[in-house]
Amino acid sequence: xxxxxxxxxxxxxxxxxxxxxxxxxxxxxxxxxxxxxxxxxxxxxxxxxxxxxxxxxxxxxxxxxxxxxxxxxxxxxxxxxxxxxxxxxxxxxxxxxxxxxxxxxxxxxxxxxxxxxxxxxxxxxxxxxxxxxxxxxxxxxxxxxxxxxxxxxxxxxxxxxxxxxxxxxxxxxxxxxxxxxxxxxxxxxxxxxxxxxxxxxxxxxxxxxxxxxxxxxxxxxxxxxxxxxxxxxxxxxxxxxxxxxxxxxxxxxxxxxxxxxxxxxxxxxxxxxxxxxxxxxxxxxxxxxxxxxxxxxxxxxxxxxxxxxxxxxxxxxxxxxxxxxxxxxxxxxxxxxxxxxxxxxxxxxxxxxxxxxxxxxxxxxxxxxxxxxxxxxxxxxxxxxxxxxxxxxxxxxxxxxxxxxxxxxxxxxxxxxxxxxxxxxxxxxxxxxxxxxxxxxxxxxxxxxxxxxxxxxxxxxxxxxxxxxxxxxxxxxxxxxxxxxxxxxxxxxxxxxxxxxxxxxxxxxxxxxxxxxxxxxxxxxxxxxxxxxxxxxxxxxxxxxxx
Amino acid sequence: xxxxxxxxxxxxxxxxxxxxxxxxxxxxxxxxxxxxxxxxxxxxxxxxxxxxxxxxxxxxxxxxxxxxxxxxxxxxxxxxxxxxxxxxxxxxxxxxxxxxxxxxxxxxxxxxxxxxxxxxxxxxxxxxxxxxxxxxxxxxxxxxxxxxxxxxxxxxxxxxxxxxxxxxxxxxxxxxxxxxxxxxxxxxxxxxxxxxxxxxxxxxxxxxxxxxxxxxxx
Amino acid sequence: xxxxxxxxxxxxxxxxxxxxxxxxxxxxxxxxxxxxxxxxxxxxxxxxxxxxxxxxxxxxxxxxxxxxxxxxxxxxxxxxxxxxxxxxxxxxxxxxxxxxxxxxxxxxxx
Amino acid sequence: xxxxxxxxxxxxxxxxxxxxxxxxxxxxxxxxxxxxxxxxxxxxxxxxxxxxxxxxxxxxxxxxxxxxxxxxxxxxxxxxxxxxxxxxxxxxxxxxxxxxxxxxxxxxxxxxxxxxxxxxxxxxxxxxxxxxxxxxxxxxxxxxxxxxxxxxxxxxxxxxxxxxxxxxxxxxxxxxxxxxxxxxxxxxxxxxxxxxxxxxxxxxxxxxxxxxxxxxxxxxxxxxxxxxxxxxxxxxxxxxxxxxxxxxxxxxxxxxxxxxxxxxxxxxxxxxxxxxxxxxxxxxxxxxxxxxxxxxxxxxxxxxxxxxxxxxxxxxxxxxxxxx
Lengths: 547, 218, 110, 324
Prior knowledge:
Chain A: Belongs to the heme-copper respiratory oxidase family. The complex is a heterotetramer. Helix content of chain B is 76%, strand content 2%.
């Protein structure tokens, strides 16, 4: 038994001379017109990094403002800051984060294909993303938007004094970008798998991105049409969301959350995929309950559509609807719990090492568990009536999206860094960053649970003085967290030029992506692979790959 | 029977032309699933309006121009036929027939848009354009305004789809005339055909929802 | 062979006939929601004709049919779960403010 | 800088129930959390790469384990669901004898009107131990009336009434917030809820500028908007009489029968042609856009007060309570 899952790939030299970074030229033009999924993934990585820092800067200012009960900024500035933070982080960082960077880079490699099914669409998707991003930044620069990322009517359609229509257009465009990506992934997964790559031999990362793509393709169009309705209402001063005109504001909320709740799963499912790759690799054991993990991803992506009105328990929906949606929300907690148990069980009787990707993965499991468990609180009808729109909810979804997804993003970034760049990152710095992020994160967001139960409302630029102590703790944590996030930016940048050469498989990992050179050649494999084994056939001692 | 056509090599990411054709067709179907939900949001809004203000919607429905609407339905149904025949001609590699059928389909599409434009003009002169030029008295004025708000969005977005379809079909017709398709390679025709039929299906549902409302009433 | 396939012509003829039927039926007063039910039923029939014969859905691979079914399934989810709210926002028939379970379900002109 | 407070004040019967639910949720979560963290830490230490521990006999049949923990978590979750659902139904079922207080949200203040006509802004005085029902609406955007000490909140939507009820159990001052983002001064749209001994509350009511009661004000509006021209005195040939109307079934022109409740009266003022009372010509003009939410509430209160008591609802009674 070897660690390889493919046959037919001979070993290669440590330094690949021919790879996607050099083949096809290094001109700007060769990058901007590329159809190579790996280059597009790099373009995405660079652009979402920009937006991560834009959104992060807004977060820093928000936490700064909340150090004192009376606030530092004017309310208009503060309202624009959290709207900016929400829009940028949700649509320009979290949703594209793992799918469009690692998904783009890895899905063809993992299934043994030369590229995605539609490389031009892939590039178009990136251009839409960048265009939308520039439009959003433009809207911010000329005056900003103060509706919150949720655009609730009739505030957004009639009362807000921000550049709402521009922001709506930006979100609309980025939505189309995400539809195209999802479509591409679905077709690629169905139609481009290598010989022998059956569905149950797919890595969980591919399954997760597939489940994510289903949501992208089927939920995003509803968001698109909803935003068009809001924009039309704002421009024409007539519309079906305005009660003064006989419309129904709850209709907006139904349509919006029909997208935006499944979108929460767009923001976490790919993270599940990354963790399911890392944990078996560093525990040197097959993933526990592979089929359960796979089908719980699919279950989440389907049931994720059935729970949206749990955002509306106090919004004026009927009692009956509340009962139904709360029950369905409890149902969806089950597949998430299954995953946590499976990752934990994968550690059982393994040979665990603690490299940086594993630290991020363990951090992910811890933070996601807390986020998921507090999901039980907010899915609970009576409890939600007390905490909805408070910092309890803010803390809950940050545990999932920042504690979860961003940890997974960084974990994946470190794990596949050698594959993408051909170089190793400095291990000790990476471990320090992982620990800083874990502790900084908890210090930032755990106090917010308590604040929420005490009754501190979200989107408040000022607050009663009795809440100050917890807020100061939270802001202190945010500075630790900011340092944790800034650190990788420097050492990863350094490693691009000075890092040790990685070789094709530094982690002795299974999976097709490790069977080609690092960085991979433009068409991914010198000889197209044939798959003969299920994934994660790890054995205790890392051995030299292939005999 | 068929003209000797080029059999282009598949794009580099595909192993075979079959794989490429399957991917393209499946991709279009996934896109159409997206489109269903895109129109679905609007249809939910329509359903809400109709369920909560049935009398007003019925009165608004009687304001619509049923003759143009019905003729336009006929036009689109016929264009679907010519599109289906075009795909059939492509399958058999009949270049001339393909070019002509595509041209007819595009012309029918244009006719549809022309009639739609004429209808919009009529609505403008009757002050039925919400927000810009709307004037209506009576108890149901606000519902009529909301109905026309949705009417313009539904038909407008549908019209954009028709326009895109016409553009694609014209492009296909030009390529067909140059002989780019053969019985071995006509995936673009087939995929565009799917899109065009879908646009027709959307209209099949819009027609009763817009034009046939309240016709049996006073 | 160069002939026009007859099945396409029959399909088209059926579509036109259904169009005429739905147009005519719309003018016949019927009780309750029967008008709209009939009209939508005819639309479904027309759509099925187009899907099955023009778009060749019923001869298509299972995967293609799954994609189309997924779109319709999620559309149904959107409508059905929205209905859990809208259909149960009833006014409680006591001479009182609308009771807490109930909401005004007819709030504007009708 | 405040101290590190852990729980908000508990000042209503529901708040105490809620804290028990909170404890149950915390207990369940703590159990799962300790289980997961404990196992993770245990495995990480015991099965670290260099440890020489025995690793034979791994779990084989994974699906049994999977089914076991799936079922266990699901049953635990269901228990929590039913508990929360029961409380939720509870806070949506006000007792019949609750006093109605009207609350109108507008950017950025809460306007509160007591049944006796006393008005306040951003402060709500209530007596301890008596159920109170708030009738909420908004003049502009969506607001949310949140009282953490009572563990309840409810969105106030423009164009319709929502309700929220509670029974305060502790005398004191509690925070009141707007919890739905409503624009620039959202964070300042709040105030306090003052829970007083009933006697103090009565004294407070007496000390307020009584002003006319809602119903009395409604009566004045009834005249000034010209309603009395048709609906009052000799005019009732063209229009239905409103005395004794409230709470009764009204046969409509189209054959249906509706109960003349708040919703019906409000709609009849704004959209008179929607539900025409049988036997009357549809001549009444719409007052949509001309009457604000405040005035609508007053008109409704007045029409309620015309119900000669046989309607028998507590609201009619409380509205008729003379101003102090």
